[in-house]
Amino acid sequence: MKCIAIDDEPLALELISGYIQKTPFLEFVAGFTNPFNAMNFLLKNPIDLVFIDINMPELSGIELLKALPVLPKIIFTTAYSEYGAESYEFNAVDYLLKPVKYDRFLKGVNKAYDLSSLKKEEISVSVNSEPHSQFVLIKSGSKTFKIATDDIFYIEAAGNYMLFYTLKGKIMTLLPMSEILKMLPSNTFVRIHKSYIISLKHIEVIEKSIVVINKTRVPIGITYKEHFSNIIKND
Question: Which end of the chain is more exposed for a tag (fewer CB within 10 A), N or C?
């Protein structure tokens, strides 16, 4: 989904822009501190989702949206809860109160994704039916990636999505973590956190509460720590 962010506060704009850029199914197109520049941009460019502050000098977020002939999907970002009622006028996807946390941001953009036409192109994961499969088939839109299980570094949960980090890059899926665990060989892959599955073959360093894989520090959850320790000892 193509996104822009509009906020007269540079730090708030930087925060939302950063959130957009770290979310796999969002594309950050531009950020604006000047609402007039943002309005001119929106009049000339198709955008799927707009993050917009309400209380801005000279031209408020509400006034800006009223000037647009066609409205994209809207997520309001504001420090003032009293504007919530006005957001319904624009059928806003969500209303985020500052300071915005990433988990709350994800909840809003997941809702926007569910409402978008991109939902028709859901990404899913499948695997061949052989009992000891050496690869998974990861489908993305019209493309299907055949990924050797040995090439998978780790898998991370991000909202409703799962991210495969592989030698071929990062691939996203909507399949639940429980289903992914069933697909992967249990002697190679282990869940070490509520949000992470790792490949034992790619572990570089094990610290007290961290595993380093492909130069990335992956946390070990308290709930999974004992199980992971037993696996390492018996490996």
Answer: C
